[in-house]
Amino acid sequence: MPDMTHTPRILVVGTRNAKKCREMAHALQGLPVSVRPLSDYDPVPAAVEDADTFEANAAIKALTYARATGQWCVADDSGLEVAALDNRPGVYSARWGGEDGNDALNNRRLMDELRGVPSQRRQARFVCVAVLASPERVLLEARGTCEGLILDAPRGQGGFGYDPYFLVPHLGRTMAELTPDEKLAVSHRGRALADLRARIAPLLA
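The chain above was modelled as a monomer; its predicted structure follows.
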């Protein structure tokens, strides 16, 4: 008798940031999909993120990697908006320090730019736009935000990026001090992926 078991759809996580990949895969747990890292399909050329909005850059990444792998792909573009810095670094958050993905350089510039800015004027927001794409088109888009304050010294060993400096006021802890599940519940990426996840399910039926 033939095996009628349904084969789960492959869903590629479109990032080369290993920590972000783990966060996104964790958020998608429980869906009837087989989540794969982009590294499973190497060599895949890096997407050219040359747009000036989170939405457009997320779509570029999701479509680029969906077409390169031949699979559905979920990708995000996220960043930090600091009110006292006119919402910079924004879409340039990952390379603000001059080298793509260098957290130490990015955080050093953040501290340099905020030198002398009092704590009551250090409001900031994390923003994430997550996009699901097939090789043909964008299927879904979701946006999540998290409001906070920028500290003048890092706290915590978890997370990545600007997490050690980003205080979540109602918790009294930085993003880097949260457990993975706590972070997923309050973070910009967690909220965007929760929205996306709820709307992916009907597409998989």
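DSSP finds five helices and eight strands in the chain.
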